[in-house]
Input
Amino acid sequence: MLIDLHTHTRPLSWDSNLTPDELIERSKTAGLDGICLSEHDFFWKPDEVLELAKRHDFLVLPAIEINTDDGHILVYGLEEYTFGMHRSHDLADHVEKAHGAMIAAHPYRRQMPWYLESDRDYEDALARASRNPAYGYCTALELINGRGSKKENEFSRRLCELMGVRGTAGSDAHDRADIGRCATLFERDIDDIEGLIEELKAGRYRAMDLTLAPAK
Output
């Protein structure tokens, strides 16, 4: 199954130009099998997510992108925001109690060097990024971000390799052009958020850049 783990819609994500219905219909057209609604620091109500899924006959799952002191974290399995979640260790406690999962979104941000004097500068930046305290709580890092450049996503790939962790893919869709650029290919069918979390923790998936080749 091809699932986009990282999307945004208005009005819950103030910077998105997409309505939920538009995102879903265009995701279906792009050949995806499901999406996660991961608004910025706002949760969808479970009944509203179910209504969207039923109306479009499409897998729609709830998630959230939380802005922490250690970067943006995609979270699966929580239903409400609690004060203190901006601290990654507190967020991790809530996620663990809920049997959820965390993925570090666009890990290149504020960690990848733009101006290099030597290869050592790049390696040092990777080493510093690998020590990000939030990453120890994450099931995976976002290996491919649909709005990231090749250079930025390469940094994420190198970081995954250095840390020995798996990588996911999400479009980070805010506009029509973002939809279908990448997604995560799961080996098994997923019907609900519990199934998604189980597959993420089991590592039965791979990141797909859909601009390069069709999924197999």
Summary: The chain has a mean pLDDT of 96.
